[in-house]
Each structure stands twice: as structure tokens, then as C-alpha cells.
Amino acid sequence: MENWSRLGRSTKDLLELVDFFSSENVQVISDKEKFGTFTSQGKVMLSVFRAFAEFDS
What we know:
Elements (H helix, E strand, L loop, with lengths): L10 H13 L5 E2 L4 E2 L3 H17 L1
Antiparallel strand pairs: 1-2
């Protein structure tokens, strides 16, 4: 994936898609941000995204 912001319209959409992909054992990797959803760095970033999504709602 080129850019995380292109995957979803909002942080909530992004997280829902990543959760769906994870449930299907599909890893999402970003070349631009240099992390994937199954790496330690990716898991931390997803936690940050979840915090922002919770803050937005």
C-alpha cells in the first residue's frame, strides 16, 4: 500500500478494514510508512490510530 490515508475515508474506516484483513490473515504493508500490520511497529501505530479514532468519536 502506498499510503495509510488512502485505505479508508476515516481512521475508523481504516481500522475496520485492517481488522477485516487481519481476520482473514492478510497483512497490510505500507512502503511509504515502512511498516506492516503484523510487525511490532505496525501494532503500535494501529494502537495510536485506534486512540485517534476514539478521540474523534
